[in-house]
Amino acid sequence: KLILDELDKKTVIDDTRSLIIPGQSTPAASSEDQITILGALNSLLSREMIEYETHEVISHAPTSEGSQILQDGSHEARVWSVLPLKGSGTPVSPAQLKTKVGDETAKVGQGRAFKNGWVGKEGDGLVKIASEIRDATQEDLKEILKTGTLAAGEKVLADLRKRKLVVQKKGQWFTVKKGVNFSTSTAKPETDLTVDMLTSGSWKTATYKKYNFEAEGIPTSGGALHPLLKVREEFRNIFLEMGFAEMPTSSFVESGFWCFDALFVPQQHPARDMQDTFYLSDPKTSLPPNPEYYNRVSKTHEHGGYGSIGYRAPWSDEESSKLLLRTHTTASSAHMLYKLAAACRGEISKDDSAEFTHGARPTSGSDQDDGFRPAKLFSIDRVFRNETMDATHLAEFHQVEGVVADRGLTLADLIGFMRVFFKKMGIEQVRFKPAYNPYTEPSLEIFAFHPQLKKWVEVGNSGMFRPEMLEPMGFPKDVRVHGWGLSLERPTMIRYGINNIRTLVGHKVSIEGIENSPAVLF
Ligand code: PHE
């Protein structure tokens, strides 16, 4: 209102520091006042009621010590004020002075008071020698507070700065002109055309707020993908691009048979222990699998076969039928490989050979089609382990798993394949280390060089499935299957720089963090 009225009177405001803000007695010279004015200017500018230009100035403002002087007088004035006038009282000793005005003021003020000719010595004590004084420091500070500067000039200002009584501040002031929508009325401009305005005709005289095409939209409150889902999508795309088909993995509950026995994991294996595997209490047991296949598997365990001597330990039907939460997605792979071998077992026609082989042709060198079709399969899903939970382990996590079945595959195929697979994830340097899995021989652990951590970290486990697993399923002898598995959590944590799994999964996950996490690309 003040700005509009001033403009109405004068057409231009040359210097906003000359305005007198209502309620204040002096012009708005301080930088705080100018900030208040700037707020009003911007609001009027958005309605095109005014235009303004900005000017920069260096201004001065009292420090906290300066403000103290404004209130109580300078150190020298305070020293002067507590002394008796020469000849009319007992002189004050330096120690007494300290108790009267404080150490700091006594120290700084004495010298200046002497220099100004305000005080003198009488014996060992101090007395006033000027009956009246002008506290120039306080007056200068008053002027600075009011105007932001000093008429006396830069030399005095520099001295006050050196004494740490004032600081320099960058300030602004403005010149103001009328804008195209100038009016002295500050009625809020219309932001919308309403039916009422049209019927009453008030739209003709109303002022309108200018449309701001630069304004940013309100962020949408849509859903967001969890980092694990984003990384899962990356893996899925790598597999699909390499011609893999996705395995169904919806059965979290498996039997001991499919999770372990079918894979030739011995029934006494420690992984089956209650400490490592969650068993179901209700129902406790599964329906029996195909009896012929079941017999072949149990015989291979107990007595061997297919060139193996087996484990030579008694077979337990009870162990095999126990229901459990799957400990690895290799249980699903076992189901799928068994299904892939259905045509080899003569259970389905050769042409109907499993739907996931992408219509692959027989690859046998002989004329005889034994029903085998090569296949590349993958899965990414949840598995459960009875682990001690810590910063990097939970009782459930996701496994990324792939299997490739073809005639005459070798270890070199597995290694070569791994290199391509990890390269697509952006991991160029991989190393392999011999390892042990009950169901693969040979087995290899995969290590990748982590450029940030500058060390080799284990990224997966792999191997060639054993004949003791494949041949009871019905695969011809020359069919080799290699497979590998890795966790989804570890690469996700590395990608997002997370070092505690609980930041990624569980009740401590920050929703905001999930919403703002970027998509990652391997
Ligand atoms: N099942 C293995 C694991 O849990 C991974 C793996 C899959 C290893 C296939 C070899 C072959 O780590």
TrEMBL record:
Its cofactor is Mg(2+). Gene3D superfamilies: 1.10.10.2320, 1.10.10.2330, 3.30.1370.240, Bira Bifunctional Protein, Domain 2. It is found in: Cytoplasm. GO terms for molecular function: ATP binding; metal ion binding; phenylalanine-tRNA ligase activity; tRNA binding. It comes from the Eukaryota. GO terms for cellular component: cytosol; phenylalanine-tRNA ligase complex. Its EC number is 6.1.1.20. The keyword Metal-binding applies. Keywords: Aminoacyl-tRNA synthetase, ATP-binding, Cytoplasm, Ligase, Magnesium, Metal-binding, Nucleotide-binding, Protein biosynthesis. The keyword Iron does not apply. It is an enzyme of class 6 (ligase). Belongs to the class-II aminoacyl-tRNA synthetase family. Phe-tRNA synthetase alpha subunit type 2 subfamily. This is Probable phenylalanine--tRNA ligase alpha subunit. It comes from Panaeolus cyanescens.
